[in-house]
Design brief:
about 200 residues; alpha+beta; four-stranded antiparallel β-sheet; 6 helices; elongated
């Protein structure tokens, strides 16, 4: 019985050896035949040719939808932001005033709304002849307003064809109080005060 097993194993060993040799020869032949073929380098141009319509479509969608929204101008894009010290505080108190309870819409947002309503259907902020600025002055000591307020802040919006829009406030930078000087400014501030 031992002889039967040993003869079986020895014949199986021989056939396994032959099979392994055959397989290794075949892989060597395949490798040699593959190495003889000139390999074409994958080029970036070929990559782009296959996918060019997709990339062009994506770029087109970006320029149709995203680019105008990114580059659209608003009132803040026209305003100079180079004030320093108390002048900066005075401008910020007017721009970002949101009423006595500090909630709701700000003065600058109401002004932008008024401008958009006045120039409905026109991209007024994209016009080269449109300008907007804050003018800040200290209140002279001989004026009566000097007792309560330290600065006068004037917002001026100009277009080429229309009269400028002008809103002005007295500002106390010490306690953060602002007070409208004219009727238009008072209307703007009341809109902010009573906005829900």
């Amino acid at each position: 019985m031992e002889n039967t097993f040993s003869s079986f194993f020895s014949s199986t060993r021989k056939s396994l050896k032959l099979l392994i040799i055959k397989i290794s020869r075949q892989t060597l032949v395949k490798k040699n035949s593959e190495s003889k073929k000139p390999q074409e380098p994958k080029s970036f141009g070929a990559f782009l040719k296959k996918r060019a319509p997709i990339y062009l479509g994506l770029l087109g969608l970006f320029f149709v939808f995203a680019y105008p929204a990114i580059t659209e101008k608003n009132l803040d894009s026209l305003l100079d932001d180079s004030f320093e010290g108390d002048e900066r505080i005075a401008v910020d108190l007017v721009k970002f005033y949101t009423g006595p309870n500090d909630t709701g819409i700000s003065i600058i947002e109401v002004i932008e709304e008024k401008i958009n309503d006045k120039f409905e259907g026109i991209k007024i902020f994209d016009n080269e002849n449109t300008s907007a600025e804050f003018i800040v002055d200290s209140i002279p000591s001989f004026l009566e307003a000097n007792k309560e307020f330290s600065h006068q802040v004037v917002f001026q919006f100009n277009t080429e064809s229309n009269q400028p829009l002008i809103y002005s406030w007295f500002v106390n930078v010490e306690n953060g109080e602002i007070f409208p000087i004219d009727v238009d400014s008072k209307n703007i501030q009341q809109t902010v005060d009573y906005f829900d």
